[in-house]
Amino acid sequence: MVKKTENITQSLKDYQEQIENKNVINKLIYSRKEIAEYWLNLSTDNLEKSYLGNIGRAYKFLLNSNIKNESLTEEETIFLNEILENQRESSVLPEWEYLPEGWGTKNFSIKGWDVESILKIRKQNLPELLQLVQSTRPLGKSYSAHNTYMTYAYVLALTARKKDKISILDWGGGIGDYYLISKSLMPDIEIDYHCKEVPFLCEGGRECLPEVHFYEDEEECFKQSYDLVLASSSLQYVENWQIVAQKLAAVSRSSLYITRLPIVHQAESFVVLQRAYRYGYQTEYMGWFLNRQVFLNYLSSLQMELVREFLIEERFSVQDAPEHAECRGFLFCPQVYGSKT
What we know:
The longest helix is centred in the N-terminal third of the chain and has 19 residues, at 22-40. The model has no long low-confidence stretch (mean pLDDT 87). Helix content is 44%, strand content 23%. Strands 1, 2, 3, 4, 5, 6, 7, 8, 9 and 10 form a ten-stranded mixed β-sheet that branches. It folds into two domains: 2-63, no CATH class; 96-334, Rossmann fold (3-Layer(aba) Sandwich), CATH 3.40.50.150. It is globular, with a radius of gyration of 24 Å. By secondary structure, the protein is an alpha/beta fold. Helix 9 (199-208) links the parallel strand 3 and strand 4 (213-215).
């Protein structure tokens, strides 16, 4: 960090001599970003010591440079205050909490998924995803994300074999991220994409991706069948997951892919609460950690055959919970191929 302070000092000097030089400004922007990321990943106990050291001096150089001296807009101020409030809460409350009473837990502070902050974050992330799918770079910034998308590519390829056009129902698909990923993975296949979501996300999805069909009412999306039915990190957030699984299976002509599903191997299924503040989601929601065998037995009872199970690199450790959970993906196909229309 001593070197970082020296670099910032030199960059500030360069800026004063070359005000119109964008390369100098970009160096300062990058340095500011590095300092911000350093502090965001630093434990609270080390903040004061760090601020009094070289990294703090580097920050003060930037702060006193007068390169940018603008007041926050009203919208920025509100957003910042919301983040600070959630950080204060999260400093006391854990991200994950075991709920022994399950879905009967009385907690009126739980806001659920239909909140504006989730839409705001999803829309902020969309331009980066658009750039990614239009490039030749790996899909995802991590091995975990890349594995998740490449696994989906396998499922998509199986569904699309010998077809020029496929239909997809994405149950709980946000603002349609998987539509863009699907088009990138299968550019020569025509994709008729349908997405079931909460009202806020449907509104945002229609604005961002008007070619996708969005449904607030699940009964509307279940009026037809699809080549591929996808539920990625969504089924666990429904209290009566069996009813939804039954409906998903009923409209699946070829493939049903339920993935990023938290499962346990020994304990009975149980419910947890997640406070998703660190993702910028200013909300909390309950979800299942499902017993793997119970889940598979139920899908089998729906006449769905397990084609393949996938490892998903997400694990959850919740204090006092009966068992740690890990995510899995499950690809099913109908055991009896009838004429679903």
